[in-house]
Amino acid sequence: MLLKRLFLAAAALATATTMAHAEPKLIAIASFGEHPALTETADGFKARMTELGYVEGTDVVYDFQHANFDRSLIPQVLQQVEAKKPALIFAITTGLNQAAVRGITDKSIPIVFGAVVDPVVAGIVPDWEHGSEWSAGAAMLPNFKESLSFLKEVIPGIKKVGTLFNPGEDNDATNIKLINEAAAEAGIEIVAVPVDNQNDLPQRVQSFAGQVDAIFLIQSNIVQTAVPVVAQAAQRIKLPLFNSVYAPDLKDQLAGFHAISYWKNGEHAADIADRILKGEKPADIATYIPQPEDFDKLISVKGLEAVGLTLPEALKDSPWIIK
Residue 78 sits in which domain range? Predict the structure, then answer.
């Protein structure tokens, strides 16, 4: 009996020693660039991983790489990520995930995607009910029906809404298709102006003068990385500007936001990462689709006043007003 107890004690000690010396899992985070919204996605992911029991430095370590919004640098970033043989890659933005599908050659490394509008159209997953053999994640599919309903409350009588998009981006193509469908249902006309160079943004915004009642910005990389430029141009032509991404530093320049939470997107991606790390196959995991609670409605009184508008009487006590 004593020998049995000694054996069990030794086995327990060996197990504890092995656990104590277990190396933390490496989680690689790869992003298209450093931007407050994309940083929120990564921060939301890490915060949720901590909530799920993955203690940074003990259970997991993170390695962050980005391409500085330069497409030519994406292959290099992915090579560096793959060379470190991470347990999992959290890839942020559509373009980077598309490149990862082609560029990560070690298919034993699972990829979780975030900040992707439509992973099916982008070719990242085969359909909304399944991931690919090595990739699954959380989408940022917009709810333009709610967005336009919000605009109609803030700007009563609104008939035409302008937006900017990059015709070379799959994300943008999906956004334009969806916002036009929602607009037709809402009785609103969308005036979509293409832009493939940030230097052209002021001129493109200027083209909305006298043509639309407001501007609503979709989740377009080329636009979201230059919202201050768009805001200045919109103020010059006295058009209220609304965004699908919340930017606290611009809350006095924009009229409002119907914004999906990038932080929550990161949290939902972490939930999927947890399932994969516990052995579930990416192909068996459906893409997370945003729910109403994943969006925020915000109105800026100062932003409205900057273009000569006032808050409608019906919204004077609205919880949407930015204090």
Answer: 2-141+262-292
